[in-house]
Design a protein that fits this description.
By secondary structure, the chain is an alpha/beta fold. It has helices at residues 3-13, 30-42, 62-73, 78-89, 101-107, 109-118, 135-144, 158-167, 189-197, 214-221, 231-239, 243-261; strands spanning 18-24, 47-51, 95-98, 123-125, 147-149, 151-152, 172-175, 205-208, 226-229. The protein has a 9-stranded parallel sheet.
């Protein structure tokens, strides 16, 4: 059992959903991202997603795009992302990288999987990698012992959900909104998507895109195994007057969300 599976199992044993927190590497700086993520973990985030900043982020909303652009302007590289993963993994929280496919291909598929595993990372979320093109990645992650996370969406057919679940090994990422990420509201399609996915996998199902408040976290925690929050954390860092104030605000939100996922008995 990987550390990722252990985290979901521990949450389930407490009759709650796991809280998954996202921040892009290199934002507001390389060290600043590590500081913010450590505080997230200290305040109740169970699983960490580290974003690999990319110049053409099709799925990201304006908040995460702004943070990624700042990170790229400051020169953040894939090596910095791996160093961030290594620092975060030392907290003991399962640490995944969320990245578009192009940076992995450019870095080297086997090399990326091997280097992330060496850094203590537990898995990778690849939002734009289709199952049909995933063969080399499946081989590389199997070899390195990394968990793979693929996405399902409200538009996914039952057959497509079957295919995605068949190649996923970490958790199934249920994207609750059609379109880009951002602090909006969780789509009414999310519970139905989880219900359609549930019979097709024994893996945990985590819902992302749109969760930003403790109430939303509590609502999602009632039917999903994991609650993913990204843009809300990023927004606090973007709006903060100082890096220290941003880290403090991130810690407060993490604690509130951690309370949210514990509020309703998990089904």
């Amino acid at each position: 059992m990987s550390t990722l599976h252990e985290a979901f199992a521990a949450a389930r044993a407490e009759d709650r959903a796991a809280l998954v927190g996202y921040l892009p590497a290199g934002f507001p700086s390389v060290d600043g991202a590590v500081d913010a993520i450590r505080v997230m973990v200290e305040n109740g985030v169970d699983v960490v997603e580290i974003g690999l900043p990319y110049s053409d982020p099709l799925m990201d909303g304006p908040t995460i795009q702004a943070a990624a652009e700042q990170s790229l302007r400051q020169g953040t590289t894939t090596r910095d992302v791996l160093a961030t993963a290594e620092a975060v993994a030392r907290t003991g929280a399962p640490t995944l990288v969320m990245t578009y496919w192009n940076p992995i291909e450019r870095y080297g598929i086997e090399r990326f999987a091997r280097d992330l595993a060496s850094a203590g990372g537990t898995g990778v979320i690849t939002p734009d990698l289709t199952p049909e093109e995933a063969g080399p990645w499946i081989a590389a992650t199997d070899e390195a012992g990394l968990d793979r996370v693929f996405l399902v969406a409200p538009s996914s057919s039952d057959e497509r959900i079957d295919v995605v679940c068949g190649i996923t090994s970490g958790f199934v990422y249920a994207a609750s909104l059609m379109g880009v990420t951002g602090v909006k509201s969780v789509s009414a399609a999310a519970p139905e998507l989880v219900a359609r996915t549930r019979p097709r996998t024994s893996l945990p199902i985590a819902v992302g895109l749109g969760v930003s408040t403790p109430d939303q976290a509590a609502d999602v925690a009632a039917y999903a195994d994991g609650v993913i929050v990204g843009s809300a954390f990023v927004r606090l860092l973007l709006d903060a007057e100082t890096p220290a104030a941003g880290v403090a605000a991130v810690g407060r939100l993490a604690a509130e969300l951690a309370e949210g996922v514990r509020r309703h008995a998990h089904v």
